[in-house]
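Write out the 3D structure for:
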Amino acid sequence: MDKKFKMDKPKIPTHIKQGSFHDIYGNEDPFLMNSIIQDCSIERETIDKVDISNVIFRNVTFIDVNFNNMELTDVTFENCDLSNANLFEAIIHRVEFKDSKLLGVNLAESTFGNVLFNGCNLNLGAFGYSNLKYVTFEKCSLRNADFYECKFKNIHFSQCDLHEVNFSRAPLKGIDISTSTFERLIVTLEDLDGCKVSPEQAIGFARMIGLVVKE
């Protein structure tokens, strides 16, 4: 991982209890904390403004879930499947997604701080209008993901597949995509100002604006 900035990791107690996602319903306001949830499926749940903190999700499949305005703090997802989950307007702080599938996940209009995506499938993921600060995507597939009009600060893409990612109106100044691969990006030259690219990528962008690059 790039060492140019230091991210805060999830602060999860060493000893936490085995829990159930349905523990959420034992509270006046929906929340879950200090638990490990593993080897199960969470299906057809719709909860607004659920607060989840100090929780480990391991080998959990989320099916047809809608968690608008959820808040995740000090949480890890390991080998989980959140494909097509609706997490619209989430607040995500000190969270790690490891080796997880988030195909088509809806994280639009969300706020991210100190978040790691490692070895994840984020193809077709929706991040539009989100605010991302101290976020790393490492060895992830983000094909056709949408970052339309996102605000980036201290963002890093390391060895990712960025083919057809939409970065329209999301300035990439200071962001390093040189180790990632793509055949095409949806981006304007204005948004590319200050973006760090490899020599091969620079040639591709030159061709995009009609320059003839002599071999």
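The two ends are 33 Å apart (CA to CA).
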